[in-house]
Amino acid sequence: MATTPAPPQTPPKPTWDPRRPQPPFPWLRPTIRIRLTLLYGGMFLIAGILLLSIIYLLAAQAINTGNQPLFKIVGFNSLNVASPSCHAITNGLSLQAFNDAVRECMDSQRQAALDDLLSRSLLALLGLAVIAFAFGYAMAGRVLSPLGRITRTARQVAGSDLSRRIELDGPDDELKELADTFDDMLERLQRAFTAQQRFVGNASHELRTPLAINRTLLEVHLSDPNAPVELQQLGKTLLATNERSEQLVEGLLLLARSDNQIVERKPVDLAEVASQAIDQVHAEAEAKGVKIRGERRPAVVQGNGVLLERIALNLVQNAVRYNMAENGWVEVTTEVEHGQAVLTVSNTGPVVPAYEVDNLFEPFRRLRTERTGSDKGVGLGLSIVRSVARAHGGHIVAQPREGGGLVMRVTMPL
């Protein structure tokens, strides 16, 4: 029976992560505060330059209007003149030379006055521009302070602290309306999250109980040595089916829980978690002839130990089960790289096309199959791994290995 090809998967959209590290120079970012400061200061600077230009032109026009001298000496018999600023005026000059020297001196004095006015005005404008930029920066920070509160609350909510509220005081403006809308959204999210937690708890009890009863009844029936062979074979088949249903229920419940952020975090060493997962899969690996190797260095992260152990266990189990029939191996390594903890699980196995790697993380999806129907699992292993990694602020990347198999790389913040 031909299988329907899976629809093409659209690349995931980049999501905003409020826990991402801040840039080394946050003050260089073009924030709204910086842009408003530049806008306020730039407008003041432009207005000041225009005002200074107008004043300078008016002053020059007023001075040039009276450019003609108020008096002119038409004759003298004996005149002694000395000027400390006009060195061209000396004794012994003719009448025309004396009048020309007086006119040149007055022109130079007018130009010196204009130059002095311009230089002093530029210095005053520079000082006022600095004050204007500082004042604009302070005022922009005061106006945008509600946005800072909204951002801080959003970051706290990103850590699953849905009880946080902005509760912005002040005038009933657009920012207060935004904060109140955000508070209403958080209130609805908290109610939905609480209802989901309650549902998961109830579903966990309601779904596990009948499966546990069925398993007990089947085990009691199989323990009877006088039971017919056909009934024993049927009981084993039903027990395997019941065990598969239990795994499916556990996987679905874990997937539902791990889609949320982790509230209570404790130091967990990925090397220890990986070693425990290897111990649990060791017998199965020996039965399949798969060798497990790799160096596990300390890599301590803040998270939930049970969920992190599930990451390592699912990855190692998949690496062992989807391996070669002979001479297969699984390599499990942990290390700290670029300030992040890294868990890498590589294995030999069938060749995986690169375009099918993303499908492996979808629930109930396997390589070249879409639904469950394999005795190797219930099709939720990698989905749970991805959800748990995201809940811890990390991510998982899968790459086809040359020659067959996969390289699974889980990265988490320290």
SSE pattern, N- to C-terminal:
HHHHEHEEHEEHEE
CATH topology call of the domain at 262-414: Heat Shock Protein 90
Strand content: 5-15%
Can you tell me the CATH class of the domain at 262-414?
Answer: Alpha Beta
Q: In the CATH hierarchy, what is the superfamily of the domain at 262-414?
A: Histidine kinase-like ATPase, C-terminal domain
User: SS-based structural class?
Assistant: alpha+beta
Mean pLDDT comes to 76
Alpha-carbon distance between the two ends: 48 Å
For the sheet with most strands, the description reads:
5 strands, mixed
Radius of gyration equals 41 Å
**Which spans have pLDDT < 50 for at least 5 consecutive residues?**
1-21, 369-375
Main β-sheet, spatial strand arrangement:
2-4-5-7-6
Tally the beta strands: 7
Q: Tell me which oligomeric state these chains represent.
A: single chain
What is the helix fraction of residues, given as a range? 40-55%
Query: In DSSP terms, counting alpha (H) and pi (I) runs of 4 or more, how many helices?
Result: 7
Shape: elongated
| CATH architectural group of the domain at 262-414 | 2-Layer Sandwich
InterPro entries: HAMP_dom, HATPase_C_sf, HATPase_dom, His_kinase_dom, HisK_dim/P_dom, HisK_dim/P_sf, Sig_transdc_His_kin-like_C, TCS_sensor_his_kinase
Membrane topology: Multi-pass membrane protein
Domain Histidine kinase: 202-414
Protein name: histidine kinase
